[in-house]
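ARCHIVE RECORD
Type: protein–small molecule complex
Small molecule: magnesium ion
Source of inputs: curated submission
Record status: active
Notes field left blank by submitter.
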Amino acid sequence: MSNDVTVSKQEKKQSLNKIDWLSFLEKYRVVLIFFLLCIVAGFLSDAFFTTSNIMNVLRQVSIIAIIATGMTLVILIAGIDLSVGAVMAFSGAILAGVLTAGLPLWVAILASTVVGLLFGLVNGVIVSNFGVPSFIATLAIMVIARGMTLVYTKGYPLVVSNEAFRFIGSGRIFGIPVPIIIMFVIIGLMFWILRYTSFGRYIYAIGGNEEAAILAGIRVRSIKVAVFGIAGFLSAISAIIYTSRLMSAQPTAGTGIELDAIAAVIIGGTSLAGGKGGVIGTLIGALIMGVLDNLLNLMNVSPFYQNIAKGLVILIAVLIDSRFSKLKRS
Amino acid sequence: MSNDVTVSKQEKKQSLNKIDWLSFLEKYRVVLIFFLLCIVAGFLSDAFFTTSNIMNVLRQVSIIAIIATGMTLVILIAGIDLSVGAVMAFSGAILAGVLTAGLPLWVAILASTVVGLLFGLVNGVIVSNFGVPSFIATLAIMVIARGMTLVYTKGYPLVVSNEAFRFIGSGRIFGIPVPIIIMFVIIGLMFWILRYTSFGRYIYAIGGNEEAAILAGIRVRSIKVAVFGIAGFLSAISAIIYTSRLMSAQPTAGTGIELDAIAAVIIGGTSLAGGKGGVIGTLIGALIMGVLDNLLNLMNVSPFYQNIAKGLVILIAVLIDSRFSKLKRS
Amino acid sequence: MEQAVLEMVGISKEFPGVKALDGVSIHVKRSEILALLGENGAGKSTLMKVLAGVHQPSSGQIKINGKEVSIHGPKHSQELGISIIYQEFNLVPHMSVAENIFLGREPRLITGVIDRRRLRDETRQWLEKVGLTALSPDTLLANLSIAEQQLVEIAKALSFESNIIIMDEPTATLNEEETEKLLNIMRDLKKQGFGVIFITHRLEEVEEVADRISVLRDGKYIGSESIKNITRHQMVTMMVGRELTDLFPKLQGPYEEPALTVERLSVREYLHDINFTIKKGEILGIAGLMGSGKTPLSKALFGLYPHKEGTIKVGGKTVNTPREAIDAGIALVTDDRKDEGLVLGMSVYENLLLPSYRRISSFGVLHKRNKEKIVDRWIKALNIKVHHSSVEVGTLSGGNQQKVVLGKWLQMDPDVLILNEPTRGIDIGAKAEIYQIMKELAEQGIAIILISSDMPELLGLSHRILVMSEGTITAELDKEHFDQETIFQYAAGGELHV
Amino acid sequence: SGKTEKEKGTNDKLKVGLSMNTLNNPFFVAVKEGAEAQAKERDVDIVVTDAQNDPGKQLADVENLLQQNIDILIIDPADSDAIAQAVKKANDSDIPVFTVDRQSNGGDVATHIGFDAIKSGNIAGNYMSETLGGKGNIVEIQGILGTNVGQLRSEGFNQIVEETPDFKVIARQSANFDRGEAMKVMEDILQANKEIDGVYAANDEMALGALAAIEAAGRVDEIVLIGCDAIDPSMDAIRAGKMNATIAEPPFFLGKEAVDTAIKISDGEDVEKEVILDSNLVTADNVDQIKTK
Ligand SMILES: Nc1ncnc2c1ncn2[C@@H]1O[C@H](COP(=O)(O)OP(=O)(O)OP(=O)(O)O)[C@@H](O)[C@H]1O
Ligand SMILES: Nc1ncnc2c1ncn2[C@@H]1O[C@H](COP(=O)(O)OP(=O)(O)OP(=O)(O)O)[C@@H](O)[C@H]1O
Ligand SMILES: O[C@@H]1[C@H](O)[C@H](O)CO[C@H]1O
Ligand SMILES: [Mg+2]
Ligand SMILES: [Mg+2]
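STRUCTURE (tokenized, with ligand):
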């Protein structure tokens, strides 16, 4: 029996090339799986490796990747946020509502991001100040936000007619679709924050050992509230892109997106136990799922079988992943 | 000098009645919240405290309570099972399929429970033998089982015409609806297993400190597999009741039920971190949600506002809950 | 020569980047207590984990009663008659004491069904053996103090009734009294013919019970000697590889200005009406039995109890939260490094820096250059045995983990340093270094509150000692007035001595 | 006080229960609103439940409604087979019951009011065939598979496709009656297929999602797009020439009709066993004549 569980970390720097190579594999195994998937996709469909399709996939992925970025922070502090989809729907509805009321675009965007942020902060306060488990707190907020969206929209999509607004979801800058740019900016920023700021490092410390973080004088509560706030804010950003793409706010927007976002985070290597992982992995996780969807559609796999295929590929990906990490250990 | 180590504990025992009362509150706070809710319900609706309505609520709750019982075991070992709803749909489809093929009822029931069990075991093997996080493993299995259900049913509900079968979902024994009896038997059995058998205690040990469990020579892997197997099996039992109630197997059965089941478990006081909690709490958790739904309907709250009301009541319940546990601590 | 019950020959074990064991050979006979000694990170725990089947050695052989065996896993090791108390606890928090002791071996009514009455009765028997007579077998483990947990671990190990019992620093978390009890148990075991391997950094314990010592250094076997033929001084030299003079440095007198003042401090059932002042440059010892409230006091001073009464003042500032405590210049080295002191999954590097991040960042952005300087400084100053600072702190040996906890607070340049069992699990060489550091800090005017169940340490370092009992201060003793006897008397509940 | 109000409710006013399959879809929201508007108009009480597409929950909803002294029950079933058990429950408690939109395959219903989903699929197929001259690359975007409307519209549409040998279905995907999903599915299909002549989406929400993708790809002119339901935004899209057609199954009317029928039944009037409302093709030619509210 080899219980040498904790061996893996020690290596990083020194010793043999073989081990370095394995370290590399270990650290970037999701990336490898992703490339593998892309290569397979290229073989299976001629349309896959065209610039326009790549832009297409990236644009589709942007909404979930942005939400999953916020989810990454929440999971890093060992929490979970089930309300992201519902908050996205409500922020989108507010956006459309404000635009329909004839107010300028910047007011609408401000209103919708503030609403997203507020919902996130409420989550954070319930979780960190009242000690309610985040799963149940955000589930309650999810149900409430859904209800508020239905009440506000009366169950109908709200159509947006502001043509300038279309640019956010459908415009391009230097040929690159705007949602893609927004996505990379946000992920880049979060990557930097997590790595090079004390706020970022505290997030890891809280997830790793909350008690020790409190004793190190870290304001654990405020940081938790901030993390949930960021998740809510990023839900609103996704809502803006989504609403702009459809030029209407859907009351059902984001239904079930929380599970996809969590899946992206976990496939990307962030542990549900907190304290370990990062946003780059999450991006890759989201891309894996996005490429998979895209490929199955490109190949026109029957919808009944799409589910099966999708489940199997995810399973294979995580199995390869766990293989790699075992390889490394032994 | 020989007065010893355990001073503090003795103090705890003897001391004031006040503390005992608080301990009681702490331990049974969910039950209290539940009674509170029922009393409020009785005031708000005359129809609530009628025998027929109580039977009605219990019967409605049975399906989710049975699934949540399996989920409790999974969560106790610090896992999660997102596939329960999809497995329920597939087991139901198999049941209907076998009946439609003209085979006897017992064969159909056997087939469907075996299928449920198998899915559960597959979950268990992926999680415990390959070290894949249960969230992602069961998510993949969920998607696969959904797909298989659609393929098997071709997307249509399968009608069941076996009249004897109706008894399981709609019959009564001594005036008590059969699903309620099944529910109580299962929960009672699980309660006993968790408390009085080594299997049950090992579940807590694994969730509490897996390392210690391994070092104690407990076959952690097999127990994990068994726990997921039980969850799958109980999904099938729910499927049988559900299919019998509707006398048809729905391809979309159980969609989203995993979140409700997890919510029942957590409201019932079982910690997502594992090692702590039990099935009685889960039953109460499921009842709280069932009563809430029932009450909102009885009171004729408009559906859009029902979401908001439901979310708020859950929130209030967990906030009271966390209050109680703070009270105890201070 | 009598046949050894256990013999390990030429054992090597490598972890990536570390050669933890390099051809180590030891043996233990029936009715013998072998003390296994060595500095932090010498490889003692690793050697024992090889015996317990947790680690597979890369080479070497193990013989039990002369027969070569290969140990496949923990269960197998138990079957071979080996039972071990790990340095880190392996208990399940939300299960009862009884269930923890018999985990995996519960008495059964029928297959699979636990005989709860027998479980309870048998547990009581083992608890009595370790002196936990008043503890109910049904108590949840999470409700026990660290020392009680340690005793439960010991009871558990005894309950196996194995031939060979390994104890990896069982006394580190025990006070004098319980230690004495444990040493008696060991003598008892010896009488009954068991072979015992005992790891400790307290050499007085070694002299009291051990028959023989074996010493490791840097993963290598240094030597073995009968206790009759060796002095404490020689033991130290074998372990450290150099001469060690004065363990306790000479202290200067404290300054006059007060550093921290506590008035009428009460915290629920833990602390009642605590009043004292500590001066700059003073080392204030705190003594007391288990449960006397030393740990709650340390936490209260650090602002960890929001519902406390009374005031804590440092340089005019009052302290109500850990953050305020840190801002006021207080640092707390906790006695529970695993749960409170370290983020085990993070690197040594980050653990050393965690409380300092606020200082070495501008607008929240961290400066890389400063970080590395700080880390290198403390790894050197405290002689932390780690081959690179990016290593996860959880993989360090126990004593080296403790040094990381110390380092991260020393880096904060505190005005008031609260040390709760600071040298728990730390080897004698490093202890001397830490004591030296404490002396220097005190000379710079830093006030040090030293909570320790290590009597020689307390007596040797304190200017003044407060004795606690049941949450109150029962005595305040000056250097001229304190001795072990007096302290025990007050700790057991004597009257206030002014 | 609750009691007297309740008594008043049972004595004076008719109390109608309306069990909706879902309100997560504008179509059904409009059914509900039509019913509520008419209830107000005719001064009857109406109690609405939302089964969230779950037949099991719908059975529970019906059970809960039956606990509340309703005089008559209207059901829009989540599933035609499963709902039979709920209908039987109502039969057992002697409450008159009938279905709207989707039928019940069992129990005794007083009547059924609805549209014919197969026919609606047929209309779409025929229109496609006529506009494209019976030839071309066709995309079908299906509704929720596992609901019978989803299945039957597809069936109706494909009956025509099969009769049209030169139609080639190049993609057939489900977007669950959801606009956002349809956009995504359509984006992928547009990537994979350089030539697309016609797109049939099983409801307007999906048609509008597909339209967003088609517009972004700049291929509006090449593609004949047809939806179903005739909700306002799709009527606008038809006027603007972005969408070619939809099929009017105005849900608001359906809701109104349902309440009128409920009152009739309670007054003891005779009603037809089945009322199939007309589904009409809506194109640029007649878009301004069609009334949906
Ligand atoms: N799981 C592991 N992974 C990597 N390195 C390890 C692991 N366990 C121990 N080591 C390393 O092996 C060396 C020996 O550690 P060990 O715990 O045996 O020391 P020790 O003699 O018990 O010290 P202490 O007195 O501090 O408990 C140390 O350098 C330690 O960092
Ligand atoms: N009655 C109690 N219930 C729960 N936890 C307690 C109780 N009493 C003490 N504790 C906790 O147990 C730990 C040990 O407390 P204790 O009073 O034994 O400390 P101590 O006097 O410092 O003894 P030691 O020297 O063994 O640490 C502390 O962290 C304290 O918070
Ligand atoms: O008839 C309705 C509508 O077309 C709706 O858009 C989807 O569900 C169907 O049942
Ligand atoms: Mg050690
Ligand atoms: Mg203490």
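CURATOR ANNOTATION: Residues 1-17 of chain A have pLDDT under 50 and may be disordered.
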